[in-house]
Design goal:
about 100 residues, alpha/beta, Oxidized Rhodanese, domain 1, five-stranded parallel sheet, about 25% helix, globular
């Protein structure tokens, strides 16, 4: 399997309104409700396997969590399912300085 690609929080800020990019938040809904990246889609890590078909493989996919651990697992799984343009966002929400909803 190829190496996990990394995206910084600043790179993700540039993708918030990009129609060719999808931002997936894999935290729990309670964490998401406290503040999340605008236009991000909540798919908690434990639901990812059952909901992966909701994510468009043709787009750039940025996966974020609190610190990069859960998103790392999510990216590994999604790569195993054929996702190629996929990035683990580091350092994640713990270091997010962009807008939140």
């Amino acid at each position: 399997m190829s190496e996990i690609q990394i995206a910084t929080n600043d790179e993700v800020k540039e993708k918030i309104n990009d129609e060719n990019a999808v931002i997936i938040d894999v935290r729990m809904s309670s964490e998401y409700d406290m503040g999340h990246v605008p236009n991000s889609i909540l798919i908690p890590l434990e639901e990812l396997e059952n909901r992966i078909d909701e994510v468009d493989k043709s787009k750039e996919v940025y996966v974020i969590c609190r610190t990069g651990n859960r998103s790392g697992y999510a990216v590994e799984y999604m790569m195993s399912q054929g996702f190629e343009k996929i990035y683990n966002v580091l350092p994640g929400m713990i270091g997010w300085t962009g807008p939140t909803e």
